[in-house]
Design a protein that fits this description.
Helix content: 25-40%
Radius of gyration: 20 Å
Number of helices: 7
CATH class: Alpha Beta
Strand content: 15-25%
CATH topology: Nuclear Transport Factor 2, Chain: A
Oligomer: single chain
Number of domains: 1
Distance between the termini: 47 Å
Order of helices and strands: HHHHHHEEEEH
Strand order of the largest sheet: 1-2-3-4
Structural class: alpha+beta
């Protein structure tokens, strides 16, 4: 009991900025449901514009995402935290809702593989790219407040370099340019079709 009292003295002041830490530390201890980590990242006070330009935002996103995607599927907690400033609220919610459906599938069918556990979601190729180069924007082709940028992707195969082009859609939000969707552009048989948001919305 004395040890618990000391821990409370240390942790309780953190509730002045919200009880996220307290929820995580004591949720299981007191038999209450701890806060879902992803929900804590929906709005962060430290979030600033990742770049002043659309190209900078998109390139910065892939520079973070590609080395940390760990085999594909939905971003894990750490990666979601890292990319949150680069994506729109709508895309964030789509990822979070897909994660909730995934958890429900695991709970209902523990022995089966749930959706969104394999394959790269942020490009056309299942294995994912090793490098991305975002092409400068052409504002004349876009709706006001929306910019679509082509992205050249590269992956080294056994005897050749696989190259393809997808497109990233950015919108203005929170005073920043952020990624709202990915349009898949692969033209091979097994490439992803449509857009990222469409894939995430499939029940």
């Amino acid at each position: 009991m004395l040890q618990l009292t000391r821990m409370l003295i240390i942790v309780l002041p953190l509730c002045l900025t919200g009880c996220t830490v307290l929820d995580r530390v004591f949720g299981d201890f007191f038999g209450t449901e701890a806060r879902t980590p992803e929900l804590a990242y929906e709005v962060r006070p430290d979030m600033t514009c990742p770049s002043a330009s659309t190209q900078g935002t998109a390139q910065g996103f892939y520079n973070i995402y590609i080395p940390r995607r760990y085999g594909g599927g939905l971003p894990d907690e750490s990666l979601l935290f890292a990319i949150r400033p680069y994506i729109s609220d709508a895309l964030y919610r789509a990822l979070d809702q897909a994660k909730q459906r995934q958890r429900a599938q695991i709970a209902a069918n523990p022995g089966e593989k749930p959706d969104f556990t394999e394959g790269d979601l942020f490009s056309s190729l299942f294995e994912g790219p090793e490098r991305a180069v975002v092409i400068p924007e052409n504002k004349s082709a876009d709706t006001p407040g929306v910019v679509t940028l082509p992205v050249d992707f590269y992956r080294q195969e056994t005897e050749h370099v696989n190259k393809w082009e997808d497109a990233v859609v950015l919108v203005q939000e929170r005073g920043c340019w952020v990624i709202d969707d990915i349009r898949y552009g692969g033209n091979w048989t097994s490439s992803s079709d449509g857009t990222l948001r469409q894939v995430l919305s499939i029940p």
